[in-house]
Design goal:
Layout (H helix, E strand, L loop, with lengths): L3 H11 L5 H9 L3 H9 L4 H7 L5 H23 L5 H24 L17 H9 L3 H7 L8 H8 L4 H22 L2 H24 L4 H7 L10 H5 L3 H12 L3 H8 L3 H20 L6 H26 L17
Helix pairs in contact: 1-17, 4-5, 5-17, 6-7, 6-10, 8-9, 9-10, 10-11, 11-12, 11-14, 11-16, 11-17, 14-15, 15-16, 16-17
C-alpha cells in the first residue's frame, strides 16, 4: 500500500489531461493567441497566466508548457514514497535528456538558452544543465561534460567541433541502460510492460532508419538502445530488404497495415506516428488497471509528456502557418 496515496493523486492529475474536444478546438483555431486562450481555459491556466506577465505569443506557449511539466514532475516526486526516489530519478532522466538536447541544439545554432525553458527536474543534473545553458559555445560545453558517464572522448571532441549528436546518442543510451536495469530490479510487472513497449518502439525505428540508409546489420546492432530482450529484433534486422523489415516491425508493434504501406512508399514518418499512437494506447490500457506502483506513475508521466509535445506541435504549426502539414501527428492522449 506504499503507493496508494501517490497513485490516487496521479489518478486525479490524469483526469485533467486535455479531452479530445479540446484538442480538436486547438487544431481548428488559426492564431497562436487563440491557442493560448483555449489553454487558459484548461489545466494549464495557472502557468499561462503567470508567464503572460513576461512573455507573449509562441514564446509564452513554450515557457508555460515547460513550467507546467516541471511542476507536474515536482508534484509527483513530492508525493512518492521514500523508497521510490531512485526509480523517479531514472524516470526523470527523460526530461534531463530533453533539457540536454535543447541546450546543445541551441548552442549549435548560436542561440541563447533561457533557464525557464528547462525542466531541471533532477537535482543531480540541474547545476550542470544551468552551466551548459550559460556556456559561451559548444567547446565550453564539451569541457563541462568531461567525466560524465554518457560522454566519451570521441563524442566530446565532436561536440567541441560543433556536432552534438554523439553526446546526445550517448546520453540516450545511458538513460535506457538505467531504465532497463531499474525496471528489472523493481519487480513491477506493469512498469516492465510499459518500458518494454517504449524501448521496442524506439529500437524498431532505429533499425528501420538505419536499414533505409544502407547500414550493415552488425553496425545496426551496435546502435540499438539497451533493451529487455535483444534477440527480439534479430528478424527485423536480418530481413532481406527494408520492406520486409517494415512488415516485421509493424507486426511486432501492432500498427495498422496502412501505416506499413505508407512507410514502404517512402513515408517512414507515417509508421513513426502509428507507433507513437499505439504506444499511447498501450499506456492508456495499462493505466486503467488498478495497480499500485511505479508503472501507473510512469504511464501518467509518459502521457503528460506526449500531450505537451502535441500542444507544442499545434502551437508552432499555427504560428508558422503549417497546420495542414500536421496531418494525424497530433492526437489526444486521454481516453474519452
Amino acid at each position: 500500500m506504499r503507493y496508494a496515496y501517490a497513485n490516487a493523486r496521479v489518478k486525479g492529475m490524469k483526469s485533467k489531461l486535455l479531452p479530445a474536444a479540446k484538442v480538436r478546438e486547438l487544431l481548428a483555431v488559426d492564431s497562436v493567441d487563440s491557442v493560448i486562450g483555449l489553454l487558459e481555459d484548461s489545466a494549464y491556466k495557472r502557468e499561462f497566466v503567470e508567464c503572460s506577465t513576461r512573455y507573449r505569443g509562441i514564446e509564452l506557449v513554450g515557457k508555460a508548457l515547460a513550467l507546467n511539466m516541471a511542476r507536474t514532475l515536482a508534484t509527483v516526486n513530492r508525493i512518492l514514497p521514500e523508497h521510490a526516489q531512485d526509480a523517479f530519478r531514472t524516470l526523470a532522466g527523460l526530461w534531463v535528456l530533453e533539457d540536454l538536447g535543447k541546450v546543445l541544439s541551441k548552442k549549435a545554432a548560436g542561440e541563447a538558452v533561457d533557464e525557464t525553458e528547462l525542466s531541471l527536474v533532477d537535482d543531480k543534473y540541474a547545476p550542470l544543465l544551468l552551466k551548459l545553458a550559460k556556456a559561451r559555445d559548444l567547446r565550453e560545453c564539451a569541457k563541462l561534460l568531461q567525466n560524465q558517464e554518457f560522454a566519451d572522448d570521441e563524442a566530446l571532441a565532436k561536440l567541441a567541433e560543433g556536432d552534438p549528436r554523439m553526446v546526445l546518442a550517448g546520453a540516450d543510451g545511458y538513460y535506457w541502460k538505467r531504465t532497463v536495469s531499474n525496471t528489472l530490479a523493481s519487480g513491477d510487472a506493469q512498469l516492465l510492460r510499459i518500458n518494454r513497449a517504449r524501448v521496442d518502439a524506439k529500437n524498431a525505428l532505429i533499425i528501420l532508419r538505419l536499414k533505409r540508409d544502407g547500414i550493415p546489420a552488425d553496425e545496426i546492432r551496435k546502435r540499438l538502445l539497451p533493451s529487455f530482450v535483444g534477440s527480439r529484433y534479430n528478424a527485423i534486422i536480418e530481413a532481406g530488404d527494408l520492406n520486409a523489415s517494415i512488415d516485421l516491425a509493424a507486426k511486432m508493434l501492432g500498427v495498422p497495415e496502412s501505416a506499413a504501406a505508407a512507410a514502404k512508399q517512402g513515408r517512414l514518418s507515417a509508421l513513426e506516428v502509428a507507433i507513437e499512437r499505439g504506444l499511447v494506447e498501450r499506456v492508456l490500457r495499462e493505466s486503467r488497471l488498478s495497480v499500485l506502483g511505479m508503472g501507473a506513475i510512469t504511464g501518467f508521466l509518459y502521457l503528460k509528456w506526449t500531450e505537451i509535445g502535441n500542444i507544442r506541435k499545434i502551437a508552432y504549426a499555427t504560428h508558422y502557418g503549417l497546420k495542414e502539414e500536421l496531418g494525424d501527428t497530433v492526437f489526444t492522449v486521454k481516453a474519452s
